[in-house]
Amino acid sequence: MHDARLMNIDLASEFIVVAATLMRIKAKLLLPRKAVDDEGNEIDPRMELVERLMEYKRYKKCAGRSATPGRGARPS
After folding, report:
1. What residue spans define the domains of the chain?
2. How far apart, in whole angstroms, are the C-alpha atoms of residue 65 and residue 58?
3. 3 state SS of 47
4. Which residue among 43, 45, 64, 65 is least enclosed by CB atoms within 10 Å?
5. Alpha helices in the chain (DSSP H)
6. Tens digits of per-residue pLDDT, 22-72?
7. Is the whole-model pTM more than 0.90?
8. Are 71 and 51 in contact (CB under 8 A)?
9. Could you give the CA distance from residue 73 to residue 64 in angstroms, rounded to a whole number?
10. 12-32 per-residue burial string, b: 16 or more CB within 10 A, e: under 16
11. Among the listed residues 60, 59, 57, 30, the one whose alpha carbon sits nearest the alpha carbon of residue 45
């Protein structure tokens, strides 16, 4: 029962982080000014989301590999 609650909290926190990121990106898109990098090129805030999601996917994949019983990880 305790593990189920922790899993729900983890899932909810992941959802909140993604939702907050999407809201920030939407706010950036609604602002009249376009962000530019050092070279003067427009920065697409959606690329940041793609990069974060890819990084998140890599972490989850690594965590799944290391979460084997007997190594100190909780069994699912």
Report:
1. 2-66
2. 11
3. helix
4. 65
5. 2-30, 45-66
6. 999 898 888 766 667 778 787 777 888 888 889 989 988 888 887 666 555
7. no
8. no
9. 10
10. eeeeeeeeeeeeebeebeeee
11. 30
